[in-house]
Amino acid sequence: MANLAKLDFAALDIxxxxxxxxxLDTKIHLEAANLGDTIREESRSSSQDWANAMIxxxxxxxxxxxxxxxxxEDPLAIWKALRNRYNxxxxxxxxxxxxxxxxxxxxxxxxxxxxxxxxxxxYRARGFTDYNQLIYVIPVAEQxxxxxxxxxxxxxxx
Length: 158
Description:
Number of domains: 2
Order of helices and strands: HHHHHEEHHH
Shape: globular
Strand order of the largest sheet: 1-2
Number of helices: 8
Structural class: mainly alpha
Helix content: 55-70%
Largest sheet: 2 strands, antiparallel
Strand content: under 5%
């Protein structure tokens, strides 16, 4: 029973101060549990997958948010509602100008090292429009690259 009370990561705060990390953590955990499709448009997930995703999402919400979304039975609907709620709170401004997704993406691309220009071009070619999607993909690609390099370096004669 003690494990049920233990969270995998911090619950989404009602103020939205941990929104970005919470969203990323939730996406990663849902993907790892093969439930990532439940928060995508036109999902073909089973009702059991939806229920498991709902349990996971609600478990990682602030108590006030849990009661606010108590009657919502669709994980995608909760996902969209939370995104809309926190988009207003997390709109970043720099010297009075709103920071757009395109600006965040461009800043990220421009910080790639010169040795990673090919990667930068590949990420641009994939046409990311959502900064969170890009930030989710980069660490996975880095882990895959590290594994490939370890495999390559472990071969005799390398």
